[in-house]
Specification:
Helix content is about 25%, strand content about 20%. The strands form 3 sheets. The protein has a 7-stranded antiparallel sheet. The protein has a 3-stranded antiparallel sheet with strand order 7-8-9. It comes from Streptomyces hawaiiensis. One of its GO terms (molecular function) is DNA binding. Pfam families: Cas12f1-like_TNB.
């Protein structure tokens, strides 16, 4: 299929063939994971280009303490800022764009092994929040603002720029706002806490210990009483105060949410999936509709998209700025 497309479309010939093969493999994995019912073209405003190079087509050299270069097919030698040691055998490189800058991320194999399944020493539920990053079902709280000094300075500049642009979320005839302030506070707080980065860190450590990480639907987790199961918005009097209107149970609201998350994980509650990605069930056959068997990722992943064993792989990523020589 790819050969025929490259013959009829000239713009496909300019791209290395192995990059297109990696893209098709990612598409196959996404269709088998999320189904094909909700597949749609992504808007240009939300599109961030990225492409992956396999290791056999790469050559990386270090030029100094903070500089290195990588030879990429059809792009030649590219100078980048060396931010950290690779720490393993190079497996692939992903070039991506974020805003006006290009970055390169290296996937390496460290040789670190971990148990397939660890000895269970207990289970814990984690509720991610805005006021507190993570609250556990045993009453512990972990909080941190994931922001560097440079990001804080840039954030202050953007605040000043926004204040000069418009005084209200509605904007003016010259500067339209389209209600940008309605959920800006919540979205900014979620980004500041780094929910996705926190989940990636947890899953990365789980691969080395054999721990199973399961995500559940968090709907109504902070308004459901863990003692009697009563669900009502009035159960949560404030951000931190939970008082059940049925049985009178009192506890921190984030701890209540973590306990409900733990209970849903015990009962095999349906895993949470992002919106606009409906799952398309297989018609009759139990065999997945894709190139090969799907990846089962509980603890250490058992197989890759192509069915190859992918044990003892640690994603130690170097993300650095990329400049053309």
């Amino acid at each position: 299929m790819l050969v025929g497309r490259r013959y009829w479309h000239l713009w496909l010939r300019t791209a290395p063939s192995h990059i297109l093969q990696q893209t098709l493999r990612d598409l196959d994995r996404a269709c088998r994971t999320h189904g094909t019912f909700g597949v749609r073209w992504r808007a240009r405003q939300r599109w961030q280009p990225s492409f992956r190079f396999p290791d056999r087509h790469l050559s990386v050299e270090r030029l100094g303490r903070k500089r290195g270069r990588a030879r990429l097919p059809k792009l030649g030698w590219m100078i980048f800022r060396w931010s950290r040691p690779l720490g393993g055998t190079l497996k692939s490189a992903t070039v991506s764009r974020d805003g006006k800058h290009w970055y390169v991320s290296f996937l390496v194999e460290t040789g670190t092994t971990g148990p397939a399944v660890s000895v269970e020493r207990g289970r814990v539920g984690i509720d991610r929040g805005v006021a507190v990053l993570a609250a556990t079902s045993d009453g512990r709280f972990f909080d941190r603002s994931f922001i560097t000094p440079g990001e804080a300075q840039r954030y202050r500049r953007l605040q000043q720029r926004h204040a000069r642009m418009t005084a209200t979320a509605r904007g003016t005839s010259a500067e339209l706002g389209t209600h940008i302030g309605q959920k800006a506070g919540l979205n900014r707080a979620i980004l500041d806490k780094g929910w996705h980065s926190f989940e990636l860190a947890v899953r990365n450590r789980a691969r080395h210990t054999g721990t199973a990480v399961r995500t559940v639907n968090p709907a109504f987790s902070s308004t459901t009483c863990p003692a009697c199961g009563h669900v009502h918005p009035d159960n949560r009097e404030s951000q931190a105060r939970f008082v059940c209107t049925a049985c009178g149970h009192r506890e921190h609201a984030d701890t209540v949410g973590a306990k409900n998350v733990l209970a849903r994980g015990h009962t095999g509650h349906r895993a949470w999936r992002p919106r606009r990605q409906p799952v398309c069930e297989a018609p009759t056959s139990a065999k997945p509709q894709g190139i090969s068997a799907p990846t089962s990722e509980v603890g250490i992943p058992a197989a890759s998209a192509a069915g190859r064993i992918a044990k003892s792989v640690m994603w130690d990523v170097t993300r650095v700025s990329l400049h053309e020589t």
